Amino acid sequence: MTTSITTSELKPDATTGSLAVARLFDGEHWHSNVQLSWQQGQITAITPAAGPVQAGSLVPGFIDLQVNGGGGALFNNQPTLAALNTMAQAHRRFGTSAMLPTVITDSLAVMQQAADVIAAALANKLAGVIGIHFEGPHLALPKKGVHPAAHIRPLTAAELAIYQRTDIGIKLITVAPENVTPAQIKQLIAAGMQVWLGHSNADAATVQDALAAGACGFTHLYNAMSPLGSREPGMVGVALTDAHSWCGLILDGLHLHPIAAKLALAAKPKGKVLLVTDAMSPVGTNDTEFAFFSGTVRRQGNQLTNEDGALAGSVLDMASAVRYAVQVLDVELHEALCMASLYPAQALGCGDYRGKLQPGYQADMVLLDQQLHCQQNWIAGNRVY
Questions:
Q1: E strands within 130-169?
Q2: Domain 62-347, classified CATH 3.20.20.140, yes or no
Q3: pLDDT tens for each residue of the chain, 385 residues long
Q4: Is 211 in a helix, a strand, or coil?
């Protein structure tokens, strides 16, 4: 029988410490009544607990590849260090330990400001910010979603100069392969970018050419991409049948029908489907509307729509996405946790030090209660929530 102890008795708020818990998922296996120890932000050992343990399940911190906003701040509207801090704090409450703040299709000036802010965040070691996701502007108008048409444009040297920066951490870009050539995809990869495909009306052959050039993932699978058809498989068909690429899913019950989500999980190899939020500024707030370029996005329940009624991101958080996977899609808990931590880490190329609670890994960890709600959150051994 386990014995609960109070938070005040723990010593988690330092880069060196230990924590005894009733259950721990290390990214591969479950452990009972163990103590996790860390030094200088890195996990050093998992040993049997010698005394009282904290109730709940300690799991790897969640990693979100697509975060537009949170806490009332939208990155495009406020490309500032203060806004990034607000976003990071909002998502920590829901178990996110690492994120790619996402700037959607916008002017060159906003893109440059966003890159400058990410560089400053990394230089100042803002906990949880590990890079940037440029979702656009090199997208396809027929599948633009709520991205502003006025800023959708071809890739030029001006944008490439931003993408070539070496001070902005992990760099991911979403492009439409009908508007970005295989040669340009190779150029982006040479600049250190991860190239994902989305907001595209491309045919299957064009998508396959982009994958052959080095594109490695699909942004919010099914949404804003050419659908699977009997004679033209589209982007969705290629994504579902390609064994090597990753696919992000927005599991908010609005972007995807559960059957579509289950199809992706059945079709893709294990480890190639991961959770993303596509979160907008209302996450963690009671805000019911926010300014979005020249218009307004309104919230009704958990649905965000613009004036035309189109979905405009989500108010999803990572813990809620995990719960949806388990409760609605019947995904095993350990697999849902991997979809929120290990698989995103592997997709981003940091799976050798993030996404697991094992010696040598960064002490990014979340304590979940029985209902899978985040109780506490640590980044590099420092408790941030």
A1: 131-135
A2: yes
A3: 233 323 333 334 457 899 999 999 999 999 999 999 999 999 999 999 999 999 999 999 999 999 999 999 999 999 999 999 999 999 999 999 999 999 999 999 999 999 999 999 999 999 999 999 999 999 999 999 999 999 999 999 999 999 999 999 999 999 999 999 999 999 999 999 999 999 999 999 999 999 999 999 999 999 999 999 999 999 999 999 999 999 999 999 999 999 999 999 999 999 999 999 999 999 999 999 999 998 999 999 999 999 999 999 999 999 999 999 999 999 999 999 999 999 999 999 999 999 999 999 999 999 999 999 999 999 999 999 9
A4: helix
Catalytic residues: 278
Fold topology of 7-60+356-383: Urease, subunit C; domain 1 (2.30.40)
- Residues 6 or more apart whose Cβ sits within 8 Å of residue 56: 21, 22, 23, 367, 368, 369, 370, 375
Q: What is the pTM of this model?
A: 0.95
Residue extents of the structural domains in the chain: 7-60+356-383, 62-347
ω into 137 cis (within 30 of 0): yes
